[in-house]
């Protein structure tokens, strides 16, 4: 969506505007941010190469910071949401961060090793080359509100593994968490290594203008473009983790009950406020009734009362109103709307619990098919063959993920080969994001660059090529003035290329 603004670039994973405090005096904000950046840069220049021991120490400190304040962090996220299932926070935020730290500590020594590369012995006998991964310096992180722990600590794990320093700008919708992290981080890291920055109205704009050595942003494509434009003024390289409409495709062979169990779990997890969740579902026409029946059964079993703590709230009132408007638009244009909650939802709910709906008979002129939904609405389209599915997905922007459900290997591989996306989970959704040894990232409109695991280490490192001159130097025979020796030398070298 394009409704978000640079007032708070981190609200944009939800793709909606947020009410922020009145902007502080720009010069005061700029001065504060520049001072923090300069402090970190000076510390980097004083010790540009971080040892293996220091990196492990930093990673362990990140882990202690989470473990020793786990309950406070969970409560802070819950306060920012109004109601966020603490099980969802533990599963999708605390666990992945701690598990990634453990995995990275095991692997980082290997990642840091210089790589020997091939040398052309014909032209450079006795010489050698290496590629040395070295820290970039200071990395900026712009964090959204939907998974504020995971999406701050996740990049930090890669950033520290690569030996860098970091400034982390939190979302205005994560104000309670941001205040907590800002308060406690000093117990684990000096400000010249790590600092958390609260949104104060316009902070995101100024933050994206800083001359970082790398900038990673998670949010919408609209704000991603603005962030990239700001970074371009400094030639700051960016990693953009954006969103889009990620489809699930249930093959004719796949058990519809199993598909429904898994798809509905992810669609309702965090009230659908996940950039990689199933945005819409493609079903064979003869499977729709069975899917609807199973979805009703599952919802009654999992969420008998949407006011329970298990059912997460929508983040803010503008998002809540946007979802009602999206649902109304679909109904007015002829969609069949199925309320899985049996009428539990209220448009005046102070906690903003949005009732889950299936939406059938959707058309392309509906808002629900034009924009990333970011809420517990699941539109369902039917199809006749796999070519129709591929053509439909490919006519839109490249999604952040696709989710083929099939036990037919040829059908599975057809979708992987014919539909480009940021990532793929087969016979489930979202789970590719949680694997430590594969990269995460979008493609085209859904983002650029990767992090997680080794690829994250590489993203935040400079792979520095180094040539070591050996004892023999054939180039001395090619130095001016050029004559007979140089002619013979070039003929020999060219002959050896055959």
Runs in which pLDDT lies below 50 for 5 or more consecutive residues are 1-24
Question: In which range does the helix fraction lie?
Answer: 40-55%
- Distance linking N and C termini: 55 Å
Integer average pLDDT: 93
Number of strands: 16
Biggest sheet overview: 7 strands, mixed
Approximate strand percentage: 15-25%
Strand order of the largest sheet: 10-11-12-9-8-13-14
Q: For the CA atoms, what is the radius of gyration? A: 26 Å
Q: Give the structural class.
A: alpha/beta
Count, helices = 16
Query: What overall geometry do the principal axes of the alpha carbons give?
Result: globular
Describe it for me?
With 498 residues, the chain is of the alpha/beta class. The protein has 16 helices and 16 strands. The protein has helices at 26-46, 52-68, 70-81, 86-112, 150-161, 175-185, 203-208, 221-232, 256-268, 288-302, 317-332, 367-370, 386-394, 409-418, 453-459, 484-495, and strands spanning 115-117, 128-135, 138-142, 165-169, 194-197, 214-218, 238-241, 247-250, 280-284, 336-339, 357-360, 377-383, 401-405, 423-424, 447-448, 461-468. A seven-stranded mixed beta sheet has the order 10-11-12-9-8-13-14, with helices on both faces. The protein has a six-stranded mixed beta sheet with strand order 5-4-3-6-7-15, with helices on both faces. A three-stranded antiparallel beta sheet has the order 1-2-16. Helix 12 (367-370) links the parallel strand 11 and strand 12. Helix 2 runs antiparallel to helix 5 (150-161) and helix 3 (70-81) crosses helix 4. The longest helix is centred in the N-terminal third of the chain and has 27 residues, at 86-112. The radius of gyration is 26 Å and the shape is globular. It starts with 25 loop residues before the first helix and ends with a helix. The model is unreliable at 1-24 (pLDDT under 50).
């Amino acid at each position: 969506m394009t409704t978000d603004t640079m007032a708070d670039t981190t609200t944009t994973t939800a793709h909606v505007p947020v009410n922020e405090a009145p902007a502080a005096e720009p010069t005061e904000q700029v001065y504060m941010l520049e001072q923090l950046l300069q402090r970190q840069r000076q510390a980097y220049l004083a010790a540009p190469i971080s040892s293996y021991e220091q990196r492990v120490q930093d990673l362990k400190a990140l882990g202690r910071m989470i473990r020793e304040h786990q309950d406070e962090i969970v409560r802070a996220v819950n306060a920012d949401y109004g109601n966020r299932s603490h099980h969802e926070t533990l599963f999708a935020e605390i666990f992945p961060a701690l598990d990634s730290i453990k995995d990275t500590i095991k692997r980082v020594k290997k990642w840091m090793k210089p790589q020997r590369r091939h040398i052309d012995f014909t032209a450079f006998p006795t010489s050698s080359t290496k590629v040395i991964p070295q820290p970039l310096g200071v990395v900026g992180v712009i964090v959204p509100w939907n998974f504020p722990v995971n999406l701050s600590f996740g990049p930090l794990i890669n950033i520290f593994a690569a030996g860098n320093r970091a400034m982390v700008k939190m979302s205005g919708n994560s104000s309670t968490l941001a205040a907590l992290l800002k308060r406690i981080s000093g117990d684990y890291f000096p400000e010249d290594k790590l600092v958390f920055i609260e949104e104060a109205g316009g902070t995101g704009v100024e933050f994206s203008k800083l001359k970082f050595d790398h900038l990673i942003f998670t949010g919408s494509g609209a704000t991603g473009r603005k962030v990239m434009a700001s970074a371009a003024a400094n030639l700051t390289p960016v990693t953009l983790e954006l969103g889009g409409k990620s489809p699930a495709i249930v093959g004719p062979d796949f058990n519809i009950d199993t598909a429904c169990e898994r798809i509905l779990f992810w669609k309702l997890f965090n009230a659908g406020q996940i950039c990689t969740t199933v945005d819409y579902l493609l079903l064979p026409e003869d499977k729709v009734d069975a899917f609807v029946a199973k979805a009703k059964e599952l919802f009654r079993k999992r969420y008998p009362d949407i006011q329970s703590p298990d059912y997460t709230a929508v983040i803010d009132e503008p998002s809540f109103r946007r979802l009602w408007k999206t649902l109304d638009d679909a109904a007015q244009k002829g969609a069949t709307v199925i309320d899985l909650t049996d009428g539990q939802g209220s448009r005046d709910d102070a906690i903003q619990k949005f009732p889950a709906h299936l939406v059938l008979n959707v058309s392309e002129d509906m808002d629900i098919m034009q924009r990333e939904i970011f809420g517990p609405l699941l539109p369902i389209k039917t199809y006749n063959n796999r070519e129709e599915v591929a053509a439909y997905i490919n006519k839109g922007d490249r999604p952040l993920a696709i989710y083929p459900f099939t036990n037919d290997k040829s059908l599975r591989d057809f979708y992987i080969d014919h539909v480009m996306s940021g990532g793929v989970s087969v016979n489930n959704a979202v789970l590719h994001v949680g694997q430590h040894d594969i990269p995460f990232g979008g493609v085209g409109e859904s983002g650029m660059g990767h992090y997680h695991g080794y690829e994250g280490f590489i993203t935040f490192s400079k792979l520095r090529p180094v040539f070591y001159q050996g004892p023999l130097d054939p180039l001395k025979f090619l130095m001016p003035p050029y004559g007979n020796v140089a002619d013979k030398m070039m003929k020999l070298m060219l002959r050896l290329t055959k």
